[in-house]
Amino acid sequence: MSTIAEIADLRAYYVTRAYGVERTVRAVEGVSLTIRRNEVFGIAGESGCGKSTLLKVILGLLPPALRIVSGSVVYHANGTALDLFALPEERRRQLRWQVVSYIPQGSMHALNPVRRIGDAFRDVIRAHRRVSVHEADGMARDYLANLGLPGKVLDSYPHQLSGGMRQRVTIALATILAPPLILADEPTTALDVVVQRGVLQFLEAIRQRQESTLVLVTHDMGVHANAADRVAVLYAGQVVEEAETPILFARPLHPYTRYLIQSLPRLDDRGERMSIPGRPPALDDPPAGCRFHPRCPHATARCRAAPPPLEEVEPRHRVACYLVSGGSDGSRA
Ligand SMILES: Nc1ncnc2c1ncn2[C@@H]1O[C@H](COP(=O)(O)OP(=O)(O)OP(=O)(O)O)[C@@H](O)[C@H]1O
Ligand SMILES: [Mg+2]
After folding, report:
1. Does any ligand 1 atom lie closer than 6 A to the CB of residue 26?
2. How far apart are CA 131 and CA 129, in angstroms?
3. Which run of H or of E encompasses 26?
4. Is residue 333 part of a domain?
5. d(CA 130, CA 126)
6. 305 Cβ closer than 6 Å to some ligand 1 atom
């Protein structure tokens, strides 16, 4: 299967200054991922572990305080390799919507509340295609009809739509130019479970039809179990485990991944669910060694001393934990 995006040793830090004190939040700390064409690639992890920051970096849309400290993002589209950070901003802007598009977290805010939905479609289409307003409106109407959405939503304001419809419209807007790569940040989190399922099916139907790749960010492991082909688990800005979804859920190797999976509600669950003790570290002062060690029941002196490398412990299964890898001296916790 060919690669659509290659993320190599990415480091991205927020550098802020308040009352003369500089603070550096190391939100993405050495992430390498290979995203394959036509897959649903899940990114999991608790709140504050850097999921949204990572997506923004992959998109190349950087908030003012965010600095790329190292690494690269390369898209493989239309037969060429595009090294994102080597491109001028104008070129990056052209790639957005056409090559890579983005469904931001909290899509309530993705749509301008004082403009009609149709205006948003018109803006996106006309920023990338030389068409008249009339033609753009026709394209939007046809696309919505194709997706089974009522054309009249184009005349609505965002607040007039239900949460599920607003999210479908946001997805339609992100995919109208059929980009090969879609980045979705918690696309179903604000919705109730039944609506959630419908929205995920809607997104997946578009992905299949357009033969595109979806990078799906959510803290909800249940959504990953249902929707993702592969999942990377982020903890404190780093990938701690990555595997094909059935393998990750059947045989999670990192203690953090096990916690995430054990905290899922289960049908046969009569006892209490296990919640993860403690909380993720502040990223302006992360712990030395393995960043998970203060919460890990298996931590040893070694875990406190040096970060475990992310290693492929079996084909297509990467883990960063001394319990399972990185042990040339054979010591186990
Ligand atoms: N604009 C910013 N300035 C400074 N720090 C920021 C900024 N945005 C995010 N951060 C910090 O970066 C870290 C990662 O945040 P991010 O939003 O990427 O996490 P997340 O995994 O998406 O969390 P959530 O699940 O809550 O959406 C957090 O410590 C957060 O406080
Ligand atoms: Mg987020």
Report:
1. no
2. 6
3. strand 21-36
4. no
5. 6
6. no
The Å distance, Cα 27 to ligand 1 centre, comes to: 7
Q: Among 13, 25, 233, 234, say which to mutate for ligand 1: greatest number of ligand atoms within 8 Å of CB.
A: 25
pTM of the model: 0.94
Q: What is the pLDDT of residues 74-96, one digit of tens each?
A: 999 988 999 999 999 999 999 99
3 lines ligand 1 (CB under 6 A): no
Question: What pLDDT does residue 329 have?
Answer: 45
Which residue's alpha carbon is at the smallest distance from atom 25 of ligand 1?
47
Range of lowest pLDDT (57-66, 262-271, 304-313): 262-271
| 47 close to ligand 1 (CB < 6 Angstrom) | yes
151 with 172: CB under 8 angstroms? no
Q: Is residue 185 part of a domain?
A: yes
CB atoms within 5 A of ion ligand 2 belong to 51-52, 105
Q: pLDDT tens digit string along 171-221?
A: 999 999 999 999 999 999 888 888 999 999 999 999 999 999 999 999 999
The closest of 45, 47, 75, 43 to 60, measured between CA atoms, is 75
CATH of the domain at 229: 3.40.50.300
In a domain, 300, yes or no: yes
Evaluate whether 177 touches 166 at the Cβ level (below 8 Å): no
Pairing mode, if any, of strands 230-235 and 40-44? parallel
Structural domain range at position 196: 3-114+157-319
Q: Which amino acid is at 2?
A: S
Q: How far is the CA of 196 from the centre of ligand 1 (A)?
A: 24
Q: Is 276 inside a domain boundary?
A: yes
Number of domains in the chain: 1
Atom number of ligand 1 nearest to Cα 234: 21
Residue 315 Cα to ligand 2 midpoint, Å, equals: 30
Contact 233, 254 (CB under 8 A): yes
Question: What single DSSP character describes residue 40?
Answer: E
pLDDT for res 270: 60
111 φ, ψ (degrees, to nearest 5): -100, 135
Place of tokens 């992959």: 58
